[in-house]
Amino acid sequence: AQTVTQSQPEMSVQEAETVTLSCTYDTSESNYYLFWYKQPPSRQMILVIRQEAYKQQNATENRFSVNFQKAAKSFSLKISDSQLGDTAMYFCAFMKPPYNTDKLIFGTGTRLQVFP
Amino acid sequence: ETGVTQSPTHLIKTRGQQVTLRCSSQSGHNTVSWYQQALGQGPQFIFQYYREEENGRGNFPPRFSGLQFPNYSSELNVNALELDDSALYLCASSSGQGGMEAFFGQGTRLTVV
Question: Is A52 part of the contact surface with chain B (CB cutoff 8 Å)?
């Protein structure tokens, strides 16, 4: 069975600084998708960034980027120029074939606090 | 905000009762997934509906059941409620094309007393 592990229950960073959230996963699949979702106090999950395992290039979305290490089964999220609005729970998630199930396996989350 | 809406937003039920939660999917999406998020945990997959048929189920007992309607909206039903069913229930809609973004609603907070 696939598992996703987030070993940092809480992180804090000062506004404008950079922070990295860690995620490791376990799978025997060779192709899959990885995601980072953000859950602010409003409770709604919002997709931050998505990575396809067969793509070696790390995904980037504005201030958010990932360091995808397939052999190490590691998928960390880097947030640059942190903003107060980045304060939220961050969940790493895994999706394996068959993709038409669209089943996401989530980690336990990292609570990020951005301080002014 | 996404186009996924859930109702109600909060609900309090007594142990042993039954509850129905509702979700309307985003326009153009034919797939709805339900997740249970216990306090301090990540969401756990309950099941998914694709074009009105159940299409995958997580490790949840049969008293968790669902429906999807021709307009692709969905219901989650839980019978014989237990205290451990207290959680945030999230609905996510997607295009069913696999690997694409799932859009989540704001969830229903269920408290079982």
Answer: yes
